[in-house]
Amino acid sequence: MSPRKIIIDTDPGQDDAVAILLALASPKEIDVLGITCVAGNVPLALTSKNALMICELAGHTDVPVFAGCDRPLGRELVTAEHVHGETGLNGPTLPDPYMQLQDQHAVDFIIETLRAAAPKSITLCPLGPLTNIATALQRAPEIAEAVDEIVLMGGAYFEVGNITPTAEFNIYVDPQAADIVFKSGISIVVMSLDVTHKALVTPPRNEAFRALGTPVGKAVSEMTDFFERFDKEKYGSEGAPLHDPCVTAYLVDPTLFKGRHINVEIETQSELTMGMTVADWWGVTDRPANALFIKDIDADGFFTLLTERLSRL
Ligand code: RIB
Ligand code: CA
User: Fold this and answer.
1) Residue-range domain boundaries for the chain
2) pTM tops 0.90, yes or no
3) Which end of the chain has less Cβ packing within 10 Å, N or C?
């Protein structure tokens, strides 16, 4: 089977970094056409720089990296240095990148790539706020035909919010963009907090990263050592939740995950619940199912896959 052609849209972020490393370590399953960066965890200049550093860490300086939107469609940018640190990639000491960003804007790259692609031939993998994806769909609605599916990290239902009582960060930062994406008619797989909070880097799992004895293994263990503080303090959890790597792991082995096709709509009116993913898990409305909402994971299988793939870099 030929590898799935994907565009990773991202706001690195330690967990974004691990998701990108997993994708680059899996060329039989995943062909990364490009990495498009968006403002989110930290401002765009840092998310873009971090993406370059991650590609160099992976030894994949061939991957084109693009800077995209530096603020949400209709709201002030909210960032998450309290979780990811002031650089967005706190933990390891990584050298400044020598790779350069592409001159082309990320949204133009997305539009150009999809316009040239066969129908349903490309998977979009958003790992941050959906500003780039929504902007591309607004400017060139016809590109939706080229998208096989969108596999994204975002939202929450049973787990409720992590940035407000009701909203998950990626959706909260740009709810208008999320509304456009969830109403696009494109098939969507949602890796929500309901599943990512079950993908915890416990101490033995982090030790397995460190035991790889490679620069990648060391960097990943140092990233999660830093990144876990927020969730351990807030939730008392056993370790860092690897949110974004659930997206790329799904592309490698979807059998690790379980969910339900349901209707998901985005709160864009009330400030009280802004950015909430209103997931009709129990089918109490007649709203059409527009998303495969993932709730469960084989966590041991996920970490076995992830650790083995990281060992290849
Ligand atoms: O809420 C978790 C999400 O927000 C992850 O994608 C993390 O990287 C941040 O972007
Ligand atoms: Ca992210």
Assistant:
1) 4-310
2) yes
3) N
Q: Answer for the pair 218, 310: CB distance below 8 angstroms, yes or no.
A: no
% of residues, the chain, pLDDT over 70: 100
Chain CA centroid to CA 48, Å: 14
Name, in order, each residue with C-beta under 8 angstroms of 151's C-beta and a sequence gap of 6 or more. 123, 124, 125, 188, 189, 191, 247, 250, 251
Q: Which of 9, 10, 14, 16 to mutate to test the pocket of ligand 1 (most atoms within 8 A of CB)?
A: 16
Using CA atoms, how far residue 12 sits from 53, 131, 168, 184, 293, in Å, is 10, 15, 16, 25, 23
The answer to whether the beta carbons of residues 183 and 155 sit under 8 Å apart is no
* The pLDDT value given to residue 235: 84
135-149 burial: b if 16+ Cβ within 10 Å, else e: bbbeebeebbebbbb
Cα of 16 vs its chain's centroid, Å: 6
Would residue 243 show up in a list of annotated catalytic residues for this protein? Answer: yes
Instruction: Tokens for 255, please give them.
Output: 């059998």
Distance between Cα 255 and ligand 1 center (Å): 23
CATH class, 4-310 region: alpha beta
Give the active site residue among 60, 82, 243, 261: 243
Residues around ligand 2, an ion, CB closer than 5 A: 11, 13, 16, 127-128, 244
Q: Which residues contact 93 (CB under 8 A, 6 or more apart)?
A: none
DSSP code per residue over 264-289? EEE--S-SSSTT-EEE-TT--S-PPP
Distance CA 311, CA 215 (A): 10
pLDDT of 66-106, one tens digit each? 999 999 998 999 999 999 999 999 999 999 999 999 999 99
**Ligand 1 pocket list (CB less than 6 A):** 11, 13, 15-16, 40-41, 127-128, 153, 162, 168-170, 243-244
- The amino acid occupying position 15 is D
Helix axes 175-182, 131-139, angle to 10 degrees: 60
Distance 182 CA to ligand 1 centre (A): 18
